[in-house]
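The record is passed on directly below:
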Amino acid sequence: MKSWYIVMASFFLVSTAFVSTANAWILEREVVWEDEVDHALEAFGGVYQLDPELTQLVDKLGRLLVTGAALDKHYQFIVLNDHEPRLWTLPGGYVLVSWGAIRTAGNEAQLAALLAHGLHHAVMARDDTKVLMITAYSEEGLPPLGKIPNYALGGSQVSLNRLRSQTFSRIDELQADHHAQKYMAAAGYHPSALSQLQQKLLDLWKGEATSSLWPHRSTQEQIDRSQEQVMRLEFHQPGSWTYGDSLDAIGERLATVSPAYQLLKKSEQSFLWRATRLTNKAVAIEPREGKFLARLGDIQMQRQECAEAINYYQKALLLGYTSYSTYLGKGYCEVQLGRQDQALEDLTAASRLLPNAIAAEQIADIHQQLGRTAEAKRALLQLMAVKGDRKVWAEKKYIELDLNSNDSNLEIYFAAESRVRDGEFITLITNQSGLPVSGVDVRFTAKVKGELRDEIISAGKLEASGQVELRPGWQIDEGDEVKDVYVRVVNLTRR
């Protein structure tokens, strides 16, 4: 049997290759860290807005420290809405401190010490250049109804992972303390306030070096070295330093509302009836906190009481708690009530605040139900960045929609390999879509000895990864001039 191959135009697709090349804009993008800090804030409680005096004080002390240190770049100090003590930094000049951490400071100098310590870590992590981020989901499977964790995707996952894995070595902490005291002295605050704060933290953790919530060390060695540094600063940089005003009034306000947030935390680990009772107690203590009303919305969602859940979510939004999780829960409930347009609005808002897998999946489903194939495909492209079963599902769903759409390039899902065998033109068509089809129409065009030939042949069903051999009936002898050979699938029938 004599056969020879013809060079021809053929197209094929392996779905993962398609996602990583044809749609590379989804998987790779240049961003600056400033674009990602909002995602981090969303995932970790948002900005604390219920005490403007506290926010203004943190901003004032932060500016004094930056000015005193003569830093030539912009730094921003943000108070997180979290009753647990947290101090984090992000590249781009962001220092994130929770009001739970601020409670440990008894005066302005101790608060300045806390901020100055974080400021040095921010200086070391500063990177204003654009960086390449590969998008990635946190693949944790679909959550139970009403339990909406941080299924982050896109560049947001990078910043969130950075916070979650933020740890500092002994040398990192000693250097941060050393520079923090210099920043404090230059800003006019007594550097000995740092060792006072360190002693409080050491007592708080009962001698433990670190906490899972607090990635900074607080050891006796640090306290001793900080006290030694004060003596050196007094010798080399003598000045009239102050401890500033007392923070007793702020501390009392925070101590008053702290039990409400502890009740909220307990409610997240309780049965629904007890969770409701605990959260209502939290509302009674701090009625201005929209987070508590959003929690009541989550509870009602778990009970399948979606109308009541939406009522709580709307109250939370009116109080300014515009968290992604509030929009996400409300969007889910709107879907259950059949209000798809409102659901899309809420889910899009959630995705904009913190790109997440749950919103992307529901958005894709809604658009498909409404016949908006292009929009559904865009949402599925985001889901393809995930690993595991969800990635497989999204790829299959995307290809299914693409094969059924009028504007689909069908030829990219099929490989064609042509040859002449025993004087007859033959093409092997391979289905690489991963989905079975009940029929395909294939168009053959070529110039044979200067004559244009054009045929359409219908083939039978093709299983996923199946093959079929097609013959347009062209007789070609060796030595015949064959040019401009083109074989493509022009129509298919799905099962």
